[in-house]
Write the structure tokens for this entry.
Amino acid sequence: MKKSVTKLLAVTAVLVTAACCTVGAAQPEESVAETETASAAAVEIGTADELLAFAQSVTDGSAGGYAGQTIVLTDDIDCSELVWQPIGTMDLNDMSNYSCMFFGTFDGQGHTISGLSLEGDSSHMGLFRYVQEGGTVKDLTVTGNLNPSGGMSEIGAIVGTNLGTVSGCSFSGTVNGSYNVGGIAGTNEPTGMIYNCKTEGYASGDHYVGGIVGQNLGTISYCSNTAGVNLSTEENVATAADVDIEALTDEEGEVHTATDVGGIAGYGQTITDCASLIEVSAVQVCTGAIAGWADMAEEDAVDRNIYVHDSLGAVDGISYAEKAAPVSYEELIAREEIPEEIGRAHV
């Protein structure tokens, strides 16, 4: 029995107060109603109001994170007129309570959520704030501009902080933040898996900035990036050995230049079978066409990655045969697994 969408009175964006699972704004026009069975069939979402209602039902904890349930998009959704608040939050009163995070499966069915805009003063920002372990977001395209203010850490177009699975998703647009900034996810936690995803556009930040993930503690596989990364800061340095410590800090000793910037991940653990055709520049420490930094001592943690760049190495300025190696543009686009976006990109 499918969940149905029932009409309510007013439409506004969801505002989350400091205490988790409380909503500070009026109800959106449409809300997700409960059914007789907890493990109902798919919840269908086809309008912006229905998407707002779904977001609210996750954030206020009323749906229990949709554990074991599937949400499907039935149409493209334009969010350009919305002041978007990310799906889900954290219970600051009970850190062991995950009911206001997403646990279910969000199936985009190849549809697009366009015009996503984030400008609030917060961190853990994206379409989803958190995807919890056991949760999945798949087969979804997001376009838009994410430029939050304030702390601006853990910013990603699909999810700010991922502990679950993100697959078959793509993002086109701009993502801007400070720490842990990525085109798909800001942070990918150890349980997180991100695969078959792609980005194009622009990502920027100060520390841990990547075309796919800012800080990767989990797994990234079969992803591709044609996004520019950190093209505005000055003075690129290839490796940590070239660091000018005085230039990195201000009079108070605070770091003020970008570090750990990469085409796939700024900081990486497991990165395999990924492709990068990007422009990465404007950082001082740990820069790479695949990752700014990665654990190359761990066997098979970084493997079978390729990239195109005239001068930049793969990981912290160094390339590794069969693990993270440069190829020609012609060789890159000839591979069957490479998406069409890379074939259309300008070198």
About this structure: Residues 5-344 form one domain.
